[in-house]
Amino acid sequence: MVHTHNNNFEGLLEKHHLKKTGPRLKVLSMLSAKNVATSQPDLESVMSDIDRVTLYRILSAFEEKGIIHKVFDLNGTANYAMCSSGCGEDHHHDEHLHFNCTNCKNVYCLDELNLPPIKLPKGFKPEGFTLYATGLCPKCSKTA
């Protein structure tokens, strides 16, 4: 099963004209395995073989290419999640609800809840929209 994922990840890197390196494949594997957005410090803590600068460069390249998108948690820390297949280098399509759990502090991308079309006043040129909600995730609401 891991081999299949690696083939998919290699294809994704190839599609975006990025070299297929071990650290890049490992970051893709880690991010895709999680159901929550993940911060760089959290990734660093489980990937001791990838130094901070390399990880930062990988995350930046992935975000620039439309492979991952950045979402901020309640503390203002950047977290990263896999993009949908519709995202690309020129535009992210992450206009879905980002849910911040006030108890466990996890950030969830609720892809099924898209933002409605927003018409801005004349002269405004949006580069992206983000919608946040806060509260308790299903796991935390069960224990509350």
Automatic annotation (TrEMBL):
Protein name: Fur family transcriptional regulator
Keyword Transcription in record: yes
Family per similarity comment: Belongs to the Fur family.
Names of required cofactors: Zn(2+); Mn(2+); Fe(2+)
Residues annotated for Zn(2+) binding in this entry: C101, C104, C137, C140
InterPro entries: FUR, Fur_C, WH-like_DNA-bd_sf, WH_DNA-bd_sf
Biological process, per Gene Ontology: negative regulation of DNA-templated transcription; regulation of secondary metabolite biosynthetic process
Keywords: DNA-binding, Iron, Metal-binding, Repressor, Transcription, Transcription regulation, Zinc
A Pfam short name: FUR
Organism whose genome encodes this protein: Mucilaginibacter xinganensis
Gene Ontology MF term list: DNA-binding transcription factor activity; transcription cis-regulatory region binding; zinc ion binding
Keyword Oxidoreductase applies: no
Binding residues annotated for Fe cation, in chain numbering: H91
Record note on cofactor: Binds 1 zinc ion per subunit. Binds 1 Mn(2+) or Fe(2+) ion per subunit.
